[in-house]
Design a protein that fits this description.
175 residues, alpha+beta, two-stranded antiparallel sheet, 7 helices, 18% strand, globular
Length: 175
């Protein structure tokens, strides 16, 4: 069904059954949320393509493509989904839309990890992560912008049934 491999700071997950695509997205969501709750943001790419591996070697265009998505397309903590996956999933497009697991920003698709059952936990975990690394994050504008992007994503995608929360990062402040 699914396979995984961890190498250095990367986790490779593989799903070979297209019929399980929505389930695979749910699995990615669960993993992502678990990492946030442990105080770690993830950044990744989800792609489709040729892949070969055995006990000694791995040859994979799909890993290269996923790595490029993670490194070149997304600078924020999210899992970007290759546009080719969206195009080839026309037969399950309605299922993808109804699952609410994929969002689009401009021409970029990415995994939506938020729902009404986890929003509060994710918000509190992200807030805690920011506050625990406040000094380091505010010394690094790139890290700060990633935190702000994630906060904005949380606030914009908050389910209606969840309570409102104040932003924990101010974009601007006076001296």
């Amino acid at each position: 069904m699914y396979q995984y491999k961890a190498v250095s700071d990367s986790i490779f997950l593989k799903c070979t059954n297209r019929e399980l695509f929505i389930d695979f997205l749910n699995l990615l969501k669960i993993i992502y949320v678990a990492f946030i709750k442990q105080g770690l943001f993830l950044r990744g790419g989800l792609s489709y393509g040729k892949h070969f591996e055995n006990d000694r070697i791995t040859y994979s265009h799909v890993l290269t493509k996923a790595h490029e998505l993670a490194e070149k397309i997304t600078e924020y903590p999210r899992v970007v989904i290759d546009n080719d996956i969206i195009l080839m999933s026309e037969d399950i497009k309605q299922d993808i839309i109804e699952s609410n697991l994929v969002l689009k920003s401009g021409n970029t698709y990415f995994l939506n990890i938020i729902d009404s059952s986890n929003w509060n936990d994710i918000f509190e975990s992200a807030k805690s992560l920011y506050l625990s690394s406040f000094e380091q994050v505010n010394k690094n504008e790139s890290a700060r912008m990633k935190q702000i992007w994630f906060q904005n994503y949380l606030i914009e995608m908050k389910p209606q049934e969840c309570e409102n929360k104040e932003k924990y990062i101010e974009f601007y402040s006076s001296w």
